[in-house]
Design a protein that fits this description.
The chain is α/β, with parallel strands linked by helices. It contains 6 helices and 15 strands. It binds beta-D-glucopyranose (BGC). InterPro entries: ATPase_NBD, ROK. It comes from Eiseniibacteriota bacterium.
Length: 249
Amino acid sequence: MSAAPRRKAGAHTLALDIGGTHIKSAVLDARGLLVAPPVQAPTPRPATPARVLRVIAGLAAAAPRFQRVAAGFPGVVQDGVTLTAVNLHPAWRGVDLARRLVRLTGRPSRVANDADVQGMDVIDGQGVELVITLGTGVGSALFLDGRLVPNLEFGHHPFRDGRTYEELLGDQALKRIGTRAWNARLRAAIATLRQAFTCRRLYLGGGNARLIEKPLPHGVRAVGNISGLLGSIRLWADARTVPRPVRRR
Ligand code: BGC
């Protein structure tokens, strides 16, 4: 992955992708391009707010200069407050993460669900578009004409035999059944999801998207996990510094 040249003007954003296995960070320029290659640190265990914030403090301190923060979080987020975090720790319930990030970095901060953030980078803004992220957990994001329905959380809905998409397609299942059987399961899930949402496009992201066997059905695309960082610039899209749309394809 190549780093974009540094721009002189415009706010730089510290992008954070908080995951169940890794916490990634990068600084993006005003157009949403990487200022330097992303870095990552293992998610601490137990992944309590204090411990995760300590890791973020380290990443922020090592990052190039930035004027604002945008973070994707692996759970339900409302107005910057985290309400669930199945793959982190129960203590995340009711944490004002946006405020904590402001305190930690001294910069204005915005937070949204990680799948929602990844979706913001990959959608093309037309019709119904569904994003499923495959990583430690299974994330989901739904868009209509580019507008997000936040916190869909479809990963916790039943898929087969009373078990959820996350139970059957998350990291633990992948390790248990292997890539081949996981891909077969994923095909079945893709068919069900497309039927349920009649989506124009279905994007498959998250760290395990790289294991998806090709070809994929028409309208279904695997996307790079870097979108989990790049999409966070959209959280600041109402700030006039980010022209719409940010496109790199
Ligand atoms: C969480 C989602 C998240 C997904 C991927 C799930 O367990 O409930 O909010 O998007 O994991 O991190």
